[in-house]
Every structure is written in structure tokens, then in C-alpha cells.
Amino acid sequence: MKIAIYPGSFDPITLGHLDIIRRAAACFDKVYVCVLSNGDKKPTFTHQERVELIRSSVEGLENVEVETYGGLLADYAREKGSCVLVKGLRNATDFDMEYQMAAINRGIWPELETIFFPARLEYQHFSSTMVRDMIHYDQPMERYVPAPVAEALKQRKARQI
Ligand code: PNS
User: How many CB atoms sit inside 10 A of residue 72's CB?
Assistant: First the structure.
């Protein structure tokens, strides 16, 4: 069974992330989407909120599971019996960062490979940071995030008012 891990901070998931999940799910028997901490970033959504937003977005993708993990990505991959990490690449800045992370992960576990999926043109400028900004300025979310996430964000905003 070919198992892949799609790791990220997903704060929150965007349509670009969902596109990578769909494409990975078509290539592997099983894909674990894992919400992890990125030490550099101060989170907006809790891990559990992010997991729930992703779960609502991947409904119908039978071979995709969503989890969160508090430790090292390489340890999570080992626990899942997978030596393949999937990452999306939008541009050269992503490449520089992801190339380093792939080397760090291989340093921890030499068999751990990272496979890159190039972002589709329409999602090349998408990021969770941009989405958080759009939430702040009350922009229509449907353009940037999966429909169930847009709905959840709307309800969350209504509760805060
Ligand atoms: O979506 P992001 O923020 O680019 O994802 C980065 C993430 C969360 C995958 C990375 O920071 C990570 O793997 N964190 C878990 C801790 C770890 O394993 N660090 C070593 C690899 S960089």
C-alpha cells in the first residue's frame, strides 16, 4: 500500500491546499493530512479547529485522513508506515524553504523522501496568510477556501459580533 503524508500548518486550509490533497489522493492509496506546528508562525486557529476545517473540506475523498501531531514530522511518518512526504510548490521562495525542510527530514530519517506537486496557476498566489487577511477585512471567502470552511468562518465571525 502506497501511503503519503501531506503535512502543513494549514492555518487555515486554502483551495490551493485542497487541490494538492486531491492530486495526492489520486496518486497514493492513502493520504494522511497532518496538522503540525511551524515554530516560526503564531497560529490563528487551534490544531483541532484546523483539523475540523480540513475534515469538512475532504469529505468524499475516501482515502484521505486528517490528524494532528505534536512532535517531529519524521516520527509521525514512521508511525504511519510512510516514507513519502507530499508538499506543494508555488514559487522559488517555496522551493528554497521546502528544499531545506526535505534535507532536514532526510537528516532525521534517510529513507524519508519529499515529493513536490507544482501549484496550479490559479492557486500560485494563495496562502493561509492571505486568507487570514481576507477574513480580517471581511472579504468573500468562497474564492480562497473550500465551501465548508467559508461557511464555518462566516458562522464564527457571526458569533464574535
Ligand atoms: O505549512 P507550513 O507552515 O509550511 O508547514 C511546515 C511544517 C508544519 C510542515 C513544518 O514546520 C514541520 O514539519 N513541523 C513539525 C516539526 C518538524 O518535524 N520539524 C522538522 C522539519 S522542518
Answer: 14
